[in-house]
Amino acid sequence: MVTSKVVIRDAEGLAAVDPAGATRLPLASGWSRRLGNATLIKLLFLLADLIAVALSHGLAGWIAVRYFGLSPAVLDPANYALFYLPFFAAIQYLCGGYKSPGLKRPERELEMDFKVVSFFFLALVCANFVFFKPIGFSRYVLVSWYVLGLSLVVLLRFSLRGFYAGMWRRGIAREITVLAGPLCLLEALQQKLLVQRHFRHEVVGALASPQPALVFPETQLPVLGRLEDWETVAERYGVRRIILHVSAVEHGRSGAFLAMARRCQEKGIGIEVYSDMLASPEFHYERNEFFGSYSFSSAGGWSRAAQFALKRALDFLLGLVGSLVTLVLLPVIALLQRREDRGPVFYASEFVGTDGRPYYYRKFRTMVSDADAVLRNDPQLKEEFDRKCKLENDPRVLRVGRFLRKYSIDEFPQFFSLLSGKLTFVGPRTVRQQESQRYGELLPRLLSVKPGMTGYWQVMGRQTTSYEERIQMDMFYIEHWSIWLDLVIMGKTVWKVISADGAY
Hints:
With 504 residues, the chain is of the alpha/beta class. The chain folds into 3 domains: 38-169, no CATH class; 175-279, NAD(P)-binding Rossmann-like Domain (Rossmann fold), CATH 3.40.50.720; 306-499, no CATH class. It is 52% helix and 13% strand. The chain has 19 helices and 13 strands. The chain has helices at residues 30-35, 38-68, 81-94, 106-131, 139-169, 183-195, 230-237, 254-267, 276-279, 301-340, 371-376, 379-388, 399-406, 414-420, 433-436, 443-446, 456-460, 467-480, 483-499, and strands at 7-9, 15-17, 175-181, 201-208, 223-226, 241-245, 270-274, 283-288, 293-298, 346-352, 358-364, 424-426, 452-454. The strands form 5 sheets. Strands 5-4-3-6-7 form a 5-stranded parallel sheet, with helices on both faces. Helix 3 (81-94) crosses helix 4 (106-131).
């Protein structure tokens, strides 16, 4: 966090740190800095990969011996690990697997892990025929090894990511960072990090890029000085990274930005350049080595079509299994409800479909049967509900209802709507007709996607997020959708439900 400081404003309204009153930010402790060292993180990911591949190989061999009756003597050549471990590490390195994990979103990590492990086993089969031709290899071992290898590589890598994400949330191993550029754009840049719950950066403030033609708005970011003062600010606050927002109106200052980048490299300060065009998820781009420019192209239509087909297949499979589980739970939950309150087993909840019309999905009832009347007759409760669309300490909830909500069991009847196609498993949150007005001009974008049983906002904060954050998270999901993002959300959903994190 930023320490207290004396702030003055110049004629252009830019806040700056008074040199006489400024205090240096306390730097992170030595062990915290070492924990966040980029080289250490890469070595940990390398070690995790080697453990995952070696352990999965050993488990695959044990399965082949235990369940397929193979002799241990014919499984693999001697010292085989000395061949396949460096081989896997080399493929992972060439595919960018040892770049900083703080730069890769989780769905991209999952996609990369799948591609790397799949390519490794395909290349390994070919290499076996070249280097170990006289030795036979069991297809049972290879198939088991691939499944186990993919599972363990993903598990260990995401465990490391989760470990560092937890450290960053607690303020440990963070990089002291300043945002630089036009003030009117920097808060939106910081909001991108908050919406994604990415806390790698300890953002201590902003370096304002002077633009006389613009009037700078009020900002929540402490303004530490002008962009030209970056070296002084970096020294004073122990800055380890500068994120520079380059806007279109600053194209004439490219020489100054290049000089700044060179100087940052000399001082060991990381520098990142942000551009709205490069940040857009709508395009793929590659660098033109002749001009040093970037060539933009739209995402492949066949790829998105294949991902949509897989999404629909997953919806059908999950809907079928979930509906069967709901039928099994139905008599037990109905009996528990009836012991507390006589009323219907299900509660019908309204939501707006993609065509703008109201539809309904069912949930197991968790409240007293006259819950709507109780809300209408209590102005304080109604005011809180209208503001948050949720009550944190809702007096209308049954005892069994609290248990059902805590572990999301009340949501199971939604699998019927999933099976019928009204809902998708992962998507934006469902909104009622009166709620939809809060989306304003973003409503058409929200309705362009089928609402989901679970989604990005549920796994990134669940009920602990504000309504405005929910809207931003819905928009983020729609803009960045991929089947890999859905799979990450599904995995996080399972963990959130088991841990009852953020539920009430």
